[in-house]
């Protein structure tokens, strides 16, 4: 390795600083989830499982967690189905208004979720969809289409179109071609988009905030609890969520690598 | 035609599903929101109308203009901070790290926080900052300060720190992508011509990475402008942002037309920013050719 120059050494320090900035807060969250004190301050008071026990004894929080999981699973399934179809249409066909469709589908990725939530609330109110978890599922599935479409389209762009022609020439119908040629080649993109959609839906606040009724999801539960103050239970459930997210990342990196 | 028409019909049916879905559940709602922005409120109802009263109110009532200006200011500060942290990081990843494996590892380390709950990442700053938060108590137990500093929680600094923390990866990703695409030959050529690292940076790397900087900056700006969580968790009374205003219009104030007008303003701003970004990216791609 080449000797680093003085400014490059400075940069190494800087980069470590930024990485510390990115990770220290997560460490703080986990440390305080085991801290035997109601306040989150140093010096640490001692080790406890109490806050984790409190999470599992908190029926409201568990219901919210269950709701979140149901919403995330349904929204992910729905958005993967519609998003993959949308990507195929956009990849293969030209039609008037195509650019508008693509941009509209991608818009929720850069538009603050709040605006999308408000637009949906206005519309649902007009056509009579009541504020409920169903409304949240439809909202999430729609807002997350952009994630699926962008990932699957990127993958489709790399697919060799001659394979599709070969499949047709060999007598396979469009359905058979889809399942035997197209789907295997876009599977990693679908898998990646599915994991990302699940994570984003599970964590979503702004759209959910406007569309949900009496049943609330975990982020909304945490959000409304936090407005009243901190409870260390949140640190405990938060640490568990962080752990599960990290496991999901490792899993997805592993899965995607094997497919190469 | 070799295929029977029933399969053509099925294909057409399958393909119209996503388009119909996006039209009905995404495009129509946005258009309706823009329309509601022109409606009138006649308490407790909202009456279809076409008048600019809501916009007039947003632009003339200081209650709204201060919040809009403050949100612009905070979003700009967050974008600046994220750029200061993100650019050197992306530069380091691409040009200083020689091993591909290490580079991918550090890049992953930057991206991974995006997968960890956004709400929790904002929340940790509520634990860290604040009167008896982790930072103050740590400084006190180290003996560096005698009394807690009020400088951190429930003010704009806290919001800028929190939002920068949340959105730095969005800045790093596009900058990393453009830096990685700069042909290494260009940099070697510049070095061969006897131009130092600073000159190479100014004349070669900086102009070629402008597209990524613009893309990252715009993304960070848009997302922090509309952020929903940080103002509530770490912002104080002088930390009201556009998101809080919107929340109020659809909640306690029950003025959907005014709220929709404000949301439409945000929509227009984001669309304008996306247009500029697209233009800058195309310009930067032309530079590279």
From TrEMBL, chain A:
Which is a Pfam family this sequence falls into? BPD_transp_1
Its annotated compartments are:
Cell membrane
CDD domains per the record? TM_PBP2
User: Which residue numbers delimit the ABC transmembrane type-1 domain?
Assistant: 65-252
Q: Which GO terms describe its cellular component?
A: plasma membrane
One GO BP on record is: transmembrane transport
- Metal-binding recorded as keyword: no
Per the record, the similarity remark reads: Belongs to the binding-protein-dependent transport system permease family. CysTW subfamily.
This chain belongs to the protein called ABC-type spermidine/putrescine transport system permease subunit II
Automatic annotation (TrEMBL), chain B:
- Occurrences of domain ABC transmembrane type-1 (ranges): 68-277
Asked whether the keyword Cell membrane is assigned, the reply is: yes
The record ties this protein, via InterPro entries, to: MetI-like, MetI-like_sf
CDD domains recorded for this chain? TM_PBP2 (cd06261)
Query: What GO CC annotations are associated with the protein?
Result: plasma membrane
Keyword presence, Membrane: yes
Question: One Pfam family, short name please?
Answer: BPD_transp_1
- Span-the-membrane segments of this chain are 12-39, 74-93, 105-123, 158-179, 210-234, 254-280
Record's subcellular location:
Cell membrane
Into which family does the record put it? Belongs to the binding-protein-dependent transport system permease family. CysTW subfamily.
Q: What protein does this entry describe?
A: ABC-type spermidine/putrescine transport system permease subunit I
């Amino acid at each position: 390795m080449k000797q680093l120059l003085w400014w490059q050494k400075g940069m190494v320090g800087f980069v470590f600083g930024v990485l510390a900035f990115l990770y220290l807060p997560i460490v703080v969250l986990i440390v305080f989830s085991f801290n035997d004190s109601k306040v989150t301050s140093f010096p640490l008071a001692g080790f406890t499982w109490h806050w984790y026990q409190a999470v599992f004894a908190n029926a409201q929080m568990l219901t919210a967690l269950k709701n979140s999981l149901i919403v995330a699973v349904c929204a992910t399934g729905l958005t993967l189905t519609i998003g993959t179809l949308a990507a195929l249409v956009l990849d293969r066909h030209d039609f008037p208004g195509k650019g508008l469709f693509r941009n509209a589908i991608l818009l929720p990725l850069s538009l603050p979720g709040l605006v999308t939530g408000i637009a949906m609330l206005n519309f649902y109110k007009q056509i009579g969809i009541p504020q409920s978890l169903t409304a949240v599922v439809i909202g999430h599935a729609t807002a997350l289409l952009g994630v699926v479409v962008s990932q699957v389209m990127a993958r489709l762009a790399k697919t060799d179109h001659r394979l599709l022609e070969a499949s047709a020439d060999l007598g396979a119908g469009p359905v058979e071609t889809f399942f035997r040629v197209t789907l295997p080649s876009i599977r990693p993109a679908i898998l990646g988009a599915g994991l990302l959609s699940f994570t984003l839906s599970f964590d979503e606040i702004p759209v959910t905030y406007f569309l949900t009724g009496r049943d609330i999801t975990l982020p909304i539960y945490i959000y409304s609890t936090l407005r009243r103050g901190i409870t260390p239970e949140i640190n405990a459930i938060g640490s568990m969520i962080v752990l599960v997210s990290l496991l999901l990342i490792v899993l997805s990196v592993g899965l995607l690598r094997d497919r190469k | 035609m070799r295929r029977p028409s029933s399969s053509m019909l099925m294909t057409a049916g399958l393909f119209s599903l996503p388009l119909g879905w996006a039209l009905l559940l995404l495009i129509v709602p946005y258009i309706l929101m823009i329309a509601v922005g022109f409606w009138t409120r006649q308490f407790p109802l909202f009456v279809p109308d076409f008048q600019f009263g809501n916009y007039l109110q947003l632009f003339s009532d200081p209650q709204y203009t201060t919040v809009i200006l403050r949100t612009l200011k905070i979003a700009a500060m967050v974008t600046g901070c994220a750029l200061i942290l993100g650019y050197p990081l992306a530069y380091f990843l691409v040009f200083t790290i020689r091993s591909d494996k290490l580079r991918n590892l550090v890049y992953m380390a930057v991206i991974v926080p995006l997968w960890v709950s956004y709400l929790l990442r904002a929340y940790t700053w509520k634990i860290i900052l604040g009167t008896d938060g982790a930072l103050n108590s740590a400084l006190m137990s180290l003996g560096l300060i005698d009394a807690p500093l009020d400088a951190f929680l429930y003010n704009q600094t806290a919001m800028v720190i929190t939002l920068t923390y949340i959105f730095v990866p969005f800045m790093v990703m596009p900058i990393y992508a453009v830096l990685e695409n700069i042909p290494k030959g260009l940099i070697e050529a510049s070095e061969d011509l006897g131009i130092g690292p600073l000159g190479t940076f100014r004349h070669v790397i900086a102009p070629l990475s402008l597209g990524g900087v613009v893309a990252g900056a715009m993304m960070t700006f848009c997302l922090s402008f509309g952020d929903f969580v940080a103002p509530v968790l770490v912002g104080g009374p002088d930390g009201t942002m556009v998101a809080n205003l919107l929340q109020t219009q659809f909640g306690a104030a029950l003025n959907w037309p005014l709220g929709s007008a404000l949301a439409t303003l945000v929509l227009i701003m984001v669309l304008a920013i996306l247009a500029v970004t697209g233009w800058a990216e195309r310009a930067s791609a032309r530079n590279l050719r």
